[in-house]
Amino acid sequence: MDLLENPVRPYAWGSRTVIAELLGVPSPAPHPQAELWCGAHPADPSRLVRGGRSLLEEVSADPEAALGEDGAARWHGRLPFLLKVLAADEPLSLQAHPSARQAADGFARENAAGIPVDAPERNYRDPSHKPELICALTPFQALVGFREPTATVELLRALDVDVLAPHVELLAGQPDDGGLRALFTTWITLPQSMLDVLVTAVQEGAVHLAADSGSPWQGVARSLLELSERYPGDAGVLAALLLNRVELAPGEALYLPAGVLHAYLAGAGIEIMANSDNVLRGGLTPKHVDVPELARVLDFAAPAPPVLTGHPDGPWSCYDTPAHEFRLRRYHGAADRPLPVPDGGARILLCTDGYACVHAGGAELELRRGAAMWLPASDRGVTVWPRGTSTQLFLAADGL
Q1: Is 347 a residue of the active site?
Q2: Tell me: the pLDDT tens digits for 16-38?
Q3: Considering the entire predicted model, what is its pTM?
Q4: Domain map of the chain by residue range?
Q5: Torsion sign across C-alpha atoms 208, 209, 213, 214
Q6: Element (H or E) spanning 192, and its range?
Q7: Quick one: fold of 2-143+248-308?
Q8: Does domain 327-397 have CATH number 1.10.510.10?
Q9: Per the residue annotation, which of 47, 78, 122, 281 is the catalytic one?
Q10: What is the pLDDT of residue 260?
């Protein structure tokens, strides 16, 4: 086992307080801090405190010790997941991720076209899919998946915007996944002159709806206003009208499979994902947007992802998903004795509150708030003793 030094990613939408306070450094930070990465991602791997070697180098040096014999073969010697602390003060881009087949095909297609892997117009930077799970640390708001069409018709009519009328009737006349695809594709491909008119009109309708305390759409309207103010004339504001608005309490989670359109709006959470960079964006961003490719991978018929609360797994709460690349467990509370850490594969243990003592192979390390620890597959029989009055730990592992 080894303590890790973990890189902070300074994206513009990040918080200047959440990660700084978690790490115990001066707050507010001079620049936004969006993500704390714990893993072996080639772009910015964690480093072992002892010796200073990157976790990417550590795994590559002895994949079987790091990942286990089965894991080393299954994941081709690579750590299959990336664990993050995500802290959003502003909305992230509207995006979706491809399936494994779509990612492999898209990667091969762009390679054949001669598009450099680091080119800004590249959609597929690797041949892998990117399922992910977000578990809230604070109240967390997101837009996730297409809302049931008849409910969306109710929202559009409640906005009471004349220029929306033909669009409302399009969906009202076909209230299914086909109607959603037609309306989404119409909006996302409008010329900018029409977008400017339509987004402004929707913003005006949202002002009145946000002020109506009796409306079931008040929260949605407030989110629309924030998006339209930050991204005036952006087609993503219209697309947001079609999505479910979800609020997570701390400890609640969402799993996002391939094809689910989503945007994180605000809050802090623990995110775990397959170790991939494949993102297809649909708006609310200055980055590359490929509308035809996004529309090709979207699942317009998928139900809204359920809110996960975790199920008991010994002393841990486990958030099960279909993803083989990762599994997330959470512990929150106090303990009067050491607790077992599940064996099997590579693991990263992160402390977000309190502190704990970790024992492995006769050695002991203290895990403080904001610190993370690498536990290779060869470390078996590991125990952790939460010593704070309300310690919170997250354990990332593969999903095998």
Answers
A1: no
A2: 999 999 999 999 999 999 999 99
A3: 0.95
A4: 2-143+248-308, 148-241, 327-397
A5: positive
A6: helix 192-210
A7: Jelly Rolls (2.60.120)
A8: no
A9: 281
A10: 97
